[in-house]
Amino acid sequence: MKVFNNILFLFFAITIAACDDILEKDITTDVINVVTPKEGHIVESNIVSFQWETLKGANKYRLQIEDKNALLIRDTLTSKTFLKLPLLPGNYKFKIRGENLGYESKYTTLTSFEIKSPTSLENQLVILKSPYSGFSTNKNNLTLVWDPIKIAASYTLELYDVTNSNVLLFSKEGITASTYSLDSNNLKTDALYEWRVKAVNATSVTDFNKATFLLDTTPPNAPQNIFPNNADTRKVNTAIDFSWKLDSDSGIIKSPIDYYIIEFATDSDFSRGLESQIINTTSCQKTFATTGTFFWRVKAKDKAGNIGLGYSKPFSLLIN
Predict the structure, then answer these.
(1) pLDDT at residue 250 in the model
(2) Which of 134, 173, 220, 223 might form a disulfide with 308, Cβ 3.0–4.6 angstroms?
(3) DSSP for residue 53
(4) Cross-referenced PROSITE patterns, in alphabetical order (predicted)?
């Protein structure tokens, strides 16, 4: 009976392991149907719309674009079946395939299209370069940068405070450069901001293009050590797991954490035998090659550039 139970357990284990493969549809012989652009299509815009039909069994799509010299200039993975991408005038080819965790479909046949310099602004968008959406900063002086459009006479810029009811803070017309500097007169408080730019000439105008950024001047809190416990004992030449946690800071805007700095020393003042590591998560491993008492602490830095208010309370660790 014991042998039978072991065999039965092994059967179920193999069956469960195989289920992961069964859940993913084999799409290796499938081909996506492209909606647009079609072969030979001429686009009179600096923004190209790519669209294709959903492929059953695919949860991601890979779009690759080549220039006239067959050089890959764009390799984009998306879960959508529609993308708008900026491209300069010229001749291009593209192909698309579907993907899931286990399989990839065939690429579509390379499709050629051409982008011509538009004579009107109506079908164009101003390409916003910096700051990109999701950018975080702790500085209230910031330069906005966008790509110029040849037939534009000027640009209109708007700045909104999204955090505070999406209020319009600033609007300026007639900008002839493709940059504009913001300062503390514009960025007065921590908030999520949205900037919008449109191009204008005597006969036409683009729609506004927009991007967001975060102003966050509140530093992260000091982390709290979790493991090993204070005054714990561990063996020399053995990998030791360290972990800590971080409570949210008190600021209006809470930028994501960029990294943690963990420090090790042989004294509680961290003046002797100091070692430090940069860690992207709230845990790490370390092996001590010598015996003795060590101390460890952690500090955080967020993506806005704010350094934490302080280190975590040091914990001691005896290595024997």
Answers:
(1) 87
(2) 220
(3) -
(4) PROKAR_LIPOPROTEIN
Q: What percent of the chain has pLDDT over 90?
A: 89
pLDDT, the chain, mean: 93
Contact between 223 and 244 under an 8 Å Cβ cutoff? The reply is: yes
φ, ψ dihedrals at 8, nearest 5°: -60, -40
The residue assigned the tokens 């961290």 is 270
Sheet containing 111-115: order of strands: 41-43, 111-115, 90-99, 60-66, 72-78
**Residue environment code for 22-42, b if the CB has 16+ CB neighbours within 10 A, otherwise e:** eeebebeebebebeebeeeee
Cis peptide before 131 (omega within 30 of 0): yes
Q: What is the pLDDT of residues 33-61, one digit of tens each?
A: 999 999 999 999 999 999 999 999 999 99
- List the beta bridge partners of residue 199: 155
- How much is the pTM? 0.79
Residue 121's identity, in one-letter code, is: L
Q: Are the beta carbons of 76 and 62 closer than 8 angstroms?
A: yes
Domain architecture of the chain: domains with CATH? 34-115 (2.60.40.10), 128-215 (2.60.40.10), 224-319 (2.60.40.10)
Which tokens sit at 192?
Answer: 């999520």
